């Protein structure tokens, strides 16, 4: 009986090891990755990467770090507070040019690794409200995301461009807090820039019938696409409860980033395991937006040069790297 039990225990251990064993040796390191505010998709991705990569790479430990989101991650990856970060392509590009809002500092040490997903702007109002356009929200209380986040920055760009920001009452609340404030009637609308379906929008819809404003219509009318590198997109009908028609909006591209001086081997190995077949499957289970991660989408819409380790991986996969994205020191 004792021998049989030991054999069963050994078999169970062997099975567990085979499921989670590392697929290769890696340089030992403890690295951090900047995620985003509570309830945001950035957190799901940062957590997923931090869980999966260390299981595949001996000696690598990763810590997901909460942050204000895209813009804060650009700053903190550049400064060395984070080794990796999740940010929007527009913020990465403007940061490198010293053109972030109220911030002329140049953040040019950020390097791109790969494309994660498209992040559509979603402007949520009550279904029975009279708001038909973003321009109808003049003077209203609108949650736009945490201060310093990609959501808040994109909201300011958009509402300034259409002439509303100066007659506006922005509330700098994270997604989950905004959903609660919306349910309690403390705000008239809230804005998220994130993959869909978003947990906080779903949360708001559990107690309040919601509607999405077609911000893409306002963007088109005012030449927003000529001013910024956002792209038109559509959120399909049925994405959220009571959403009876498609929502026309715009999106940014979400990218995994690192810093120019992070060890090339570490960057290469993390890129390799996350964009492996097993890694992509894990990320898709972590969040539905990861369905856009693929070898085909590789580093789509990258707005800064690739990290050397990432470029090595994409070269191995036969991906052509355009001159402007080739690694630089």
UniProtKB/TrEMBL annotation:
<feature type="signal peptide">
    <location>
        <begin position="1"/>
        <end position="21"/>
    </location>
</feature>
<protein>
    <recommendedName>
        <fullName>C4-dicarboxylate ABC transporter substrate-binding protein</fullName>
    </recommendedName>
</protein>
<dbReference type="InterPro" id="IPR011852">
    <property type="entry name" value="TRAP_TAXI"/>
</dbReference>
<dbReference type="Pfam" id="PF16868">
    <property type="entry name" value="NMT1_3"/>
</dbReference>
<keyword id="KW-0732">Signal</keyword>
């Amino acid at each position: 009986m004792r021998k049989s039990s030991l054999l069963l225990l050994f078999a169970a251990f062997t099975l567990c090891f085979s499921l989670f064993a590392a697929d290769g040796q890696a340089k030992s390191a403890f690295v951090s990755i900047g995620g985003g505010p509570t309830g945001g998709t950035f957190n799901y991705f940062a957590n997923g990467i931090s869980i999966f990569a260390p299981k595949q790479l001996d000696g690598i430990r990763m810590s997901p770090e909460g942050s204000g989101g895209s813009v804060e991650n650009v700053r903190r990856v550049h400064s060395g507070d984070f080794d990796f970060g999740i940010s929007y392509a527009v913020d990465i590009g403007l940061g490198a040019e010293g053109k972030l809002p109220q911030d002329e500092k140049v953040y040019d040490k950020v390097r791109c690794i790969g494309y994660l997903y498209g992040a559509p702007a979603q402007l949520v109002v009550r279904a029975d409200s009279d708001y038909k356009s973003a321009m109808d929200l003049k003077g209203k209380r609108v949650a736009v995301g945490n201060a310093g986040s990609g959501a808040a920055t994109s909201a300011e760009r958009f509402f300034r461009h259409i002439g509303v920001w100066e007659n506006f009452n922005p509330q700098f609340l994270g997604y989950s807090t905004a959903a609660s404030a919306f349910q309690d009637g403390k705000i008239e609308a809230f804005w998220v820039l994130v993959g869909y379906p978003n947990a906080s929008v779903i949360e708001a819809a559990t107690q309040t019938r919601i509607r999405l404003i077609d911000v893409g219509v306002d963007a088109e009318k005012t030449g927003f696409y000529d001013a910024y590198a956002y792209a038109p997109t559509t959120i399909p009908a049925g994405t959220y409860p009571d959403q009876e028609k498609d929502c026309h909006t715009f999106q940014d591209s979400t990218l995994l980033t690192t810093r120019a001086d992070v060890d090339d081997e570490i960057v290469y190995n993390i890129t390799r395991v996350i964009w492996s077949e097993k890694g992509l499957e894990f990320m898709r289970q972590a969040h539905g937006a990861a369905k856009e991660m693929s070898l085909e989408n590789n580093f789509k819409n990258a707005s800064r040069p690739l990290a050397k380790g990432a470029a090595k991986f994409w070269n191995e996969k036969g991906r052509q790297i355009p001159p402007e994205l080739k690694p630089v020191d």
